[in-house]
Design brief:
The chain has 412 residues and is of the alpha/beta class. It has 16 helices and 18 strands. Helix 1 packs across helix 14, helix 7 runs parallel beside helix 12 and helix 9 packs antiparallel against helix 10. Bound molecules: NADP nicotinamide-adenine-dinucleotide phosphate. The site of NADP nicotinamide-adenine-dinucleotide phosphate (NAP) has 24 residues, from helix 1.
Length: 412
């Protein structure tokens, strides 16, 4: 099979290296050879650098800046979409599927934004659309999930699905200073120069939306996930929570149906910094990820591994290629399910701290005191564990600038 790689950054190069370093082995294992026939590199400087470094065989023939050259090549059966763009990626994936080419992508932004359209296109053209690397990086979680959802009701899913924030929170929980950890994470390439996508929780809610669309088979906009990230968490919060016996993680959660304490047709999806106790997620540290879900027949299933980086992510892509060559496609089209989204109404207890700059605001002080079930500290600063409040209320308090963290004892 001839394939094209779209984008030649970290993941693209990982895929190329895996596929080209043991060609013979793959021919035996996959049933046919997999040849990287084209690589889309749109930037001339990048192309010249690749040629100079001699990291691609026959680079002059293989590298192209022209996606149409790939699209119109009838010998290319599969495109590996690993660009960092969102809109262009959607275009590349749509056009590839429409041209009858299988697609595997690591691009969570593109998959989350256009999930159901892409499913329809893949079905119409009878080709595979795979996206294992888009959630959990190197963890094989979507392949098992896609089989389990066929004959199980998934009542609960919990996940640590953003490596960068997990690294920051792990270091904070060791008692380290937030600013120092942020600088270090940027130096190590764990956080981007603009870390908003990760620290505001956007990346995690995008991945949760993908998981929820696979499980519920309804269209879900990532903006509809009830969420906030770790932008209002610091070492003082982690220190106080540690004293109370809690670890802190950014937890993505899906609850569905009666088994999860909701009505039969209700679901809720959220991403919040969450204080956990006696949970297996406490051992998921640094750049590692874990997704656990609960099926009506399967019971609890847990998937743990590297949340990203070159070879784990490329490995997920190559696993997709293997599935494309050896199995029939599995699709997740929108079904006529009458689900009710109750994400905003779900209630939990929250840790709430009024930061110094808001301590003079009497209305905030009064409100927080009225929500307190347990007061942790009340002399120099106000820190409480709240009564059960809705996700919507928690988001409102977050938007006022409070430090707020979900307390969740029910995460296994
Ligand atoms: N790295 C990971 O651990 C990881 C894990 C899971 C998922 N992913 C996802 O995998 C994808 C690739 O990630 P990466 O880490 O490999 O990113 P990367 O190192 O930034 O590489 C992306 C490459 O795509 C190129 N590109 C951007 N727009 C393009 C376009 N319109 N046409 C052709 N090429 C284009 C970029 O070129 P320029 O730099 O010249 O713009 C760059 O070479 C992303 O969607 C990412 O979210 C990554």
């Amino acid at each position: 099979m001839k394939i094209a790689i779209l984008g030649f950054g970290t993941v693209g190069q990982g895929v190329y290296n895996i596929l080209t370093k043991s060609k013979k082995n793959y021919q035996e294992k996959f049933g046919e050879a997999v040849e990287v026939a084209k690589i889309l590199v749109y930037d001339d400087n990048e192309k010249n650098a690749i040629i100079e470094k001699q990291i691609v065989e026959n680079a002059e023939q293989v590298l192209t800046p022209d996606f149409d050259e790939i699209l119109t090549d009838p010998e290319i059966d599969l495109t590996v979409e690993v660009t960092s763009s969102k809109d262009k990626a959607i275009e590349y994936i749509r056009q590839s599927l429409a041209a009858g080419k299988h697609v595997t992508t690591a691009n969570k932004s593109a998959i989350a934004a256009d999930f159901m359209n892409l499913q329809e296109l893949a079905i119409k053209n009878n080709v595979h659309l795979k996206f294992e690397a888009s959630v959990g990086g190197g963890i094989p979680v979507l392949a098992p999930l896609s089989r389990v959802v066929a004959f199980n009701e998934i009542s609960k899913l919990h996940g640590i699905i953003n490596s960068s924030t997990n690294y920051v929170l792990t270091e904070l929980c060791k008692g380290r200073d937030l600013d120092e950890v942020m600088v270090e994470a940027r130096e190590l390439g764990i956080l981007e120069a603009d870390p908003t996508d990760d620290v505001a929780g956007y990346d995690a809610r995008r991945k949760l939306a993908i998981l929820a669309m696979m499980i519920l088979q309804i269209d879900i906009a990532e903006e509809n996930v009830s969420s906030f990230g770790i932008t209002q968490v610091d070492s003082h919060d982690t220190e106080i929570l540690r004293e109370q016996g809690y670890d802190l993680k950014l937890i993505a959660e899906l609850l569905s149906g009666e088994e999860a304490g909701l009505k039969e047709n209700q679901f809720a999806i959220s991403v919040f910094p969450t204080a956990i106790k006696d949970s297996k997620f406490s051992r998921v540290n640094g750049m590692m990820n874990e997704v656990a879900f609960f099926g009506s027949h399967s019971g609890e299933l847990r998937f743990y591994g590297a949340g990203g980086s070159m070879y784990p992510t490329a490995n997920a892509i190559v696993s997709d290629i293997y599935e494309i060559l050896t199995t029939e496609p599995i699709y997740f089209p929108a079904l006529e399910n009458s689900y009710e989204d109750v994400s905003e109404d779900i209630e939990s207890s929250f840790y709430i701290r009024i930061p110094e700059k808001l301590m003079d605001d009497k209305s905030i002080l009064d409100e927080i005191n009225s929500l307190a079930e347990k007061v942790i500290q009340n002399d120099k600063e106000v820190i409480i564990f709240s009564k059960a409040i809705s996700n919507q209320k928690a988001i409102e308090l977050f938007e006022c600038g409070l430090h707020i963290i979900r307390i969740n004892k029910a995460i296994d």
